Amino acid sequence: MNIYICLNDKKAQFTPNNMDIQKEIIYQTIKEIILQARQRVFRAANSTLLETYWLIGQTIVEDEQNGNLKAEYGKATLKNLARQLTIDFGKGYDYTNLTNMRKFYLAFPILDTLRQELSWSHYRVISRLDTAQKREYYIHEVLANNLTIRQLQRSVNTLSYERTIKHSPTKNGAPTIQNLIKDPNIFDFLGLPQAIKNTERSVETAIINHLQTFLLEFGKGFAFVARQQHIVTDTHDFFIDLVFYNYLLKCFVIVELKADELTHQDIGQLDMYVRMYDDLKRSVDDNPTIGILLCTEKDETIVKYSVLNDHNNLFASKYLLYLPKEEELKQLIEQDRIEFELNKEE
Asked: Which of 18, 42, 139, 247 has a CA positioned 20 to 30 A from the CA of residue 87?
C-alpha cells in the first residue's frame, strides 16, 4: 500500500515504515506556523500597548505643562484619574502605572524611536534611569543579549553602566576592550562561599558551570574557546586558565584568574602568555591578542609601574563573589575611576 501526502504542492510517496518520520515533519511544520503566528500577534499587541501607554503619558505631561504643574494638584489629579480609569478598565491604570506612563513619555518623547523588540516591562525599568546615555546603554544590552526582565533588572541593580570602563568608542567608531568589559565584575551568581578562601581552580570551575551568566556579566561579544588551554613550546608546557574570542574586536582574549591580590609576577606571566598566543595561535585575520587579569584585589601602584600602564592589550580587573550594597558599589567604582585618571595624568 502506498500513501501520498502533498506538502508544498509536491506529491511525496511514503511507505508505512516511514510514517513516524512523516508525522514528525508535519508536527514540526504546524508547530512552526503556530509559533510564528503567536510571535506576530505578540509584536502587534506589544506595539499597540507601547503606543497606548506613550499617548497616555503624553496627555498627562501636556496637561501639566498647561499650567497644572503644581506638585500637590498634579498628584491629586493623577490619583483621581487613576480611580476613574480603574473603575472602567481595571487595575492596569492605577496611580503607579499612570506614573510609569508619565515617566515613559518623558524618557522617550519621540514615539518613532521606540524599539518594538522591548516589552512594556523593559521600558518600565529603563524609563526610571536618569540619563539618556544610561537608557541607550541598557536598550542596547537588551537587544544584544536578549535580556529577560529579571536579567535587565540585575544589570541595572549592579550598576552595569557605571562599571563599564569606557563608553565612548574610538574616533572611527570601532569599540575597544574598555568599551566591552567591566570593573569590578560581580560574580555573585557563582555561588562560591565568602567565609573561606576560594582557589583559582574553584573559581574557574564555577565560571564554566555558569558560563552563560558569566558571559552576560563579563562583557559584550565574548565567545568561549577553551579552559586550561595547553600551549607547547620547545622547552615548556603552559596552561592558560580561560580563552575567549571577541567577535566585535576580532581577537582572542586570554583571562588569568587570581584568588589573591595582583602581583608583578602575575602581570609578567600574562604578558608572556599574550606574546606566546600571538606567535603560536593567532591567525593573519585576527587582531592582536588581549590579556585580562581577574583578581580579588588590585594594587594601583603595581598597575601604574608595570607594563599594564604601557600596553593597550593588557588589563587588570577586580571581581567580587558577592553583590555589595549600592552605596558600597558606587564607592568602589568611584575609587577605581579616580585612581585610573590620576595614573593616566602622571
From this structure: 42
Instruction: Report the candidate in 176, 184, 160 with the shortest Cα–Cα distance to residue 317.
Output: 184
Please state the domain count of the chain: 2
At which of 129, 157, 185 does a domain end? 157
Q: What is the CATH number of the domain that holds 91?
A: 1.10.10
Residue 244: beta bridge partners?
A: 224, 253
Q: Say if residue 232 is in the same domain as residue 341.
A: yes
Residue 249, in any domain of the structure: yes
Q: Are 321 and 187 in contact (CB under 8 A)?
A: yes
Q: How many Å apart are CA 270 and CA 291, to the nearest integer?
A: 6
The answer to whether residue 264 is domain-embedded is yes
Secondary structure (3-state) at 1: coil
- How far is the C-alpha of 175 from the C-alpha of 172, rounded, in Å? 9
Q: Which residues contact 143 (CB under 8 A, 6 or more apart)?
A: 115, 117, 118
For residue 173, the surrounding DSSP H or E stretch is: none
The residues, any chain, with a CB within 8 Å of residue 62's CB and separated by 6 or more, are: none
Residues 193 and 305 placed together within one structural domain of the fold: yes
Contact 94, 136 (CB under 8 A): no
pLDDT at 266 over 50: yes
Same domain, 137 and 180: no
Residue with cell 501520498: 4
- Per-residue pLDDT tens over the stretch 43-95: 889 999 999 999 999 999 888 877 555 555 567 788 899 999 999 998 889 99
Q: Please, are residues 147 and 160 in contact by the beta-carbon 8 Å criterion?
A: no
3-state secondary structure of 20: helix
**Could you tell me the residue range of the domain that residue 210 belongs to?**
176-345
Helices and strands, number each (H, E), in the chain: 13, 8
Judge contact between 303 and 260, C-beta under 8 A. no
DSSP string, 75-113: HHHHHHHHHHHHHHH-GGGSHHHHHHHHHHHHH---GGG
137: cell is 546603554
Domain contains 22: no
Q: How much is the pLDDT for 63? A: 84
The model's pLDDT over 147-185, given as tens digits with 9 standing for 90+, comes to 999 999 999 999 999 998 887 777 777 888 888 888 899
